[in-house]
Structures are given as structure tokens and as C-alpha cells.
Write a structure and sequence with these properties.
Radius of gyration: 22 Å
Helix content: 40-55%
Order of helices and strands: HEEEEEEEEHEEHHEHHHHHHHHHHH
Strand order of the largest sheet: 9-1-10-3-6-11
Shape: elongated
Oligomer: single chain
Length: 325
């Protein structure tokens, strides 16, 4: 069981290409309401990245940045550009993939900046959306030098650039798969440089004993896991395991087990017509009543109501599912 792949599958990860955009200086963009992770690759020129509480960073051609949440980040042609517009508004007013200067008069002496962008969407109320702060770091920045030295990431970026430029036959099939891989390769490249015991949930996957526990939870969510049984599988004492798990993952072992079970159950409810009792058994509950109580605590509604609200119609040509209130 590959835990990261399992999480991304359950949350229905979907890459949404933003395409390449050429920005004519002077320009400035604010990203203050980002509801989806975004990767931006500087294909040409340069720009400044400003984040709340941090010094501005200049990004050059070949540099890459992943933003997982909107907390006041600013992208701009100048270090101190004050006039800003929202990123989505700038994209909306772009013509032929060229974003005009905010001031209406491009600076002829300034090189334009070309950005290749992609956002990543997750299913409603899954691990990747509500708990994304635990899954992805707020900002990942990889320099062109770091990317060029990475034997996985460098050829992938070359392929993405070529595909975006040529748009040859099969482009619409190839590009989404490359963009899915991009997120994984960026996370791998970033994680290699993080110190042990850091990097949150992703960093926990590097700890052999905690990774084993996470793997077991994801491989067999229906098993009657206890802190003692997980600690035994990790070859640790109960107290040491509980502390390390909470420190690295960000929550106690059984809280993680319950959350993952509810995320799986939500996926089953959205995408299948299986009875609620059967779904309860698949995620470790012998009693449908106990499952319904746990699900209500997590999703603020009963399983049947959740299914009705989130899916409406389940399966091809199926009738609407009535809420089990």
C-alpha cells in the first residue's frame, strides 16, 4: 500500500491546466482566496513572490512554486509593486494568453514573464480539501538549479514545456497525466531536503515505524485498530508510538483512523449504491448506528443525507437515493 497514492485516489485528485500566460510588466497579482493547490513554473523572465511575514523572493526562468493555500501571497514584476489584481481576474482578461499591464502601458525595457500554471482539485470534504494543511506545505519553492539536479523532475518539466508549446496529437490525453506526476515529483524533491521529524504528514512517511502504521491503517481500515495493536506492529511501546505518531502526523493514532474511515465512507457514499450498513462494515463498524453517529460527527449530517446531497444520482441511469434520516 502506497499511502500517498491511496490518499490522492480517495480524494479524486484532478489536475486542471491553466495553460501558459505571458505577463507584460508592470503587473501584480494577489492570491488571497486560493481554494485549490496551484503550481506555477516560470518559463521565461522573472517575478517576485511575496508571502505574509517573509522577505520577497525573486523567481527566475526554470523556478517553480507550489502554493497550497491563499494566505496573502503576491506575484509581481517588481519587488514592491503596489497595484494588484486577483489572479483569476487577470487570467479572465487575458487575450491570446497575454495578460496586459495593469497600467495599460507595458514597459518596453522590461522582459515579459511567461508562467505555466496548473491547479489540483480534490473531492468535496476529503482529506485533500478540509485537511489540506496537514497534507501539503503552504509553500514549496524549487529553484531551476534544484529542478535540473533532480533526475525525476527535470525530464518531466522538459516534457511539460514541450507539450505546452507543440500541442501535438494526443496532447489532451498526455498533459493531464504529466501534470498528475508533476505534483508527486515536486513533493518528492521538496521532501528530500527537509530535516527528519519535519514536513508534517508527508514527513511522517519517511519514518519507518510510523509509515508502517499508516500503511496498515490505509490497507485495512476495517481492522479493529487500537493504539496498542498499532504500536505492536510498529515495534514500539504504546506511549512512545502514540507520542511519535501525534508529533509527526499531527493528531493521535485513533483520531487519524476515524478520520480516514470517514473519508473512505464519504467516497463510497458519493460514488456507489451500496447500502449504508455494508459501507459501515467496510470501514470497520459492526453497527450501522455507531457508524452513523461517527459519520455525523465528522460530516455534520447522517450518511443518507450526505449521499443524497453530494451525489443526487449515483451510477448511470440510477434513481435518486433517498436520505436515511
Amino acid at each position: 500500500m502506497d499511502v500517498l497514492s491511496n490518499v490522492l485516489k480517495v480524494t479524486n485528485l484532478t489536475a486542471v491546466p491553466l495553460g501558459s500566460r505571458e505577463f507584460l510588466a508592470p503587473w501584480g497579482l494577489r492570491i488571497d482566496e486560493l481554494d485549490k493547490p496551484m503550481i506555477l513554473l516560470v518559463r521565461r523572465g522573472s517575478m517576485w513572490l511575496r508571502s505574509r511575514g517573509a522577505e520577497p523572493v525573486r523567481l527566475k526562468a526554470g523556478d517553480l512554486v507550489l502554493l497550497s493555500s491563499g494566505t496573502g501571497q503576491v506575484l509581481s514584476s517588481g519587488r514592491d509593486t503596489a497595484e494588484l489584481e486577483h489572479y483569476t481576474q487577470a487570467i479572465a482578461r487575458s487575450h491570446n494568453r497575454v495578460v496586459p499591464s495593469l497600467h495599460g502601458k507595458p514597459d518596453p525595457s522590461a522582459e515579459s514573464t511567461v508562467l505555466l500554471g496548473v491547479t489540483y482539485e480534490f473531492s468535496q470534504e476529503g482529506f485533500g480539501e478540509n485537511d489540506r494543511a496537514g497534507l501539503l506545505p503552504e509553500i514549496i519553492r524549487l529553484s531551476a538549479a534544484q529542478s535540473n539536479e533532480d533526475s525525476e523532475l527535470q525530464p518531466l518539466l522538459q516534457l511539460l514545456t514541450q507539450e505546452a508549446s507543440r500541442r501535438d496529437i494526443g496532447f489532451e490525453l498526455v498533459q493531464p497525466r504529466l501534470l498528475d506526476a508533476l505534483l508527486i515529483y515536486v513533493l518528492r524533491a521538496w521532501l528530500r531536503d527537509q530535516p527528519e521529524g519535519s514536513a508534517g504528514w508527508l514527513g511522517a512517511l519517511r519514518d519507518p515505524q510510523i509509515r508502517r502504521a499508516l500503511t496498515l491503517i490505509h490497507a485495512s481500515p476495517e481492522a479493529p485498530w487500537t493504539v496498542e495493536s498499532l504500536a505492536q506492529q510498529a515495534a514500539m511501546s504504546r506511549a512512545a508510538f502514540a507520542k511519535r505518531f501525534a508529533d509527526l502526523v499531527g493528531e493521535p493514532p485513533l483520531a487519524y483512523v476515524t478520520r480516514w474511515r470517514m473519508d473512505l465512507a464519504a467516497k463510497f457514499l458519493r460514488e456507489s449504491r451500496e447500502p449504508v450498513a455494508r459501507i459501515a462494515g467496510k470501514v470497520g463498524y459492526l453497527s450501522e448506528t455507531a457508524f452513523a453517529k461517527a459519520f455525523r460527527r465528522r460530516r455534520k449530517m447522517p450518511p443518507g443525507a450526505y449521499r443524497y446531497q453530494r451525489s443526487g444520482r449515483v451510477g448511470s441511469g440510477s434513481a435518486k437515493v433517498r436520505p436515511n434520516l
